[in-house]
Each structure stands twice: as structure tokens, then as C-alpha cells.
Design brief:
By secondary structure, this protein is mainly alpha-helical.
Amino acid sequence: MSFPDIREIEAQAADWVVRLDSDTSTAETRAAFAEWRKRSALHGEAYDRLRGLWDTLDADGELAGRATGDVAADLARAGPWTRPPGRTRWWAVAASVALLGVTVAILFHQQGP
């Protein structure tokens, strides 16, 4: 008995999310998807999980219909991801305060009582 390759199923599910979200999705594509999904409950679970993630990331609808099926091209078109500046500053301040606290503790410990 062999176990299913979860990574392969996840990759297939991701491919289906992209293919079904693209402007080129056809009735034939949707029929092939339905057949793939019926082959295993794991297929449906993986697809539902990744579809939910896709929908969450695309809450404003900006990604809808833009997927081409070529993941590298889609990522290149999307451009680099950047962290919101406010969040970056918060971590920088927290790290600076922590470093200052450690430095003071070391200096205090070296001087002794």
C-alpha cells in the first residue's frame, strides 16, 4: 500500500486554483477539475484549503482573472512584496529597546554590587 504524495496533491490543487481563476477557464477545464476532485477526498480538501487562501489574499478582487497558469510569470507581474512601513518600524523599535536592555544588564552585571 502506498501513501498519497501530499506535496504533489497540493501542487495539483494550486494549479487548479490558478487555472479556474484565469480568464481562459473553459467548460472543459471545469469538467477536468471535477473529475480530478472526485478521484480523492484529499484532492477536494487541498483545493478547498488553497482556494480559501487565494480568496483571503485576494479579498479586494485585485488578483481575480489575472492568473495565467504560469506561476513564475504571475509572480513577476505582481512585483516584489514589501512589508508595510509601520510594521517594520515597530519591530525596529522593539529590537532597539531589547538591545539597550541587554546592554544595560551586561554593564550592570560587570560592575558588580
